[in-house]
Write a structure and sequence with these properties.
Blueprint: H1 3-18, E1 20-22, E2 26-28, E3 34-36, H2 45-48, E4 54-56, H3 68-72, E5 93-98, E6 103-108, E7 114-118, E8 125-129, H4 139-142
Antiparallel strand pairs: 1-4, 2-3, 5-6, 6-7, 7-8
Subcellular location: Cell projection, Kinocilium; Cytoplasm, Cytoskeleton, Flagellum axoneme
InterPro entries: RSP9 (IPR055316)
Protein name: Radial spoke head protein 9 homolog
């Protein structure tokens, strides 16, 4: 396998497993199209401290496994993606507040070096990966 192929495979796997967005950053239109939510005003500090306020930026995988009663409570325009709350192993995400609560960092412990940043109360968020491209297979033993 060429190095370019290995790199492409790692990037694809990381995009599937760790690229996340705050709840409400994207909405699903009535026709099923997913678009950036222009009226997204950010999470509150209370919302930003919960794992269920962050969604994987990929088609849902675990949504069909949720009980029907739980799915009925969801807002279908906003809650159409998988939350990171259900990720395995439990504890693979860390939420950290910086600058007196004005900055939230959500860090992956599976892909060390991936960080989502969000400024609560604003529409500013983004993510970055600065790492070696190695999956942390030891995490279940570290938790």
């Amino acid at each position: 396998m060429k190095e370019e192929d290995r790199l492409a495979a790692i990037i694809y796997r990381m995009e599937e497993e760790v690229v996340i967005v705050p709840r409400g950053a994207f909405i699903r239109m009535y026709n099923g199209q997913v678009v950036r939510n222009k009226s997204f005003e950010g999470l509150t500090c209370a919302e930003a401290s919960k794992l269920l306020s962050y969604f994987h930026c990929r088609p849902p995988v675990n949504m069909s496994n949720k009980p029907l009663a739980e799915r009925a409570k969801l807002d279908k325009a906003i809650d159409f993606l998988d939350t990171i709350e259900d990720d395995n192993p439990e504890g693979c995400w860390v939420i950290q507040f910086e600058r007196g609560g004005n900055l939230v960092l959500v860090k992956s412990l599976l892909w060390i070096g991936y960080v989502l940043y969000h400024l609560p109360g604003t529409n500013k968020y983004g993510s970055i990966y600065v790492g070696t491209g190695e999956y942390n297979i030891d995490l279940p033993f570290m938790i």
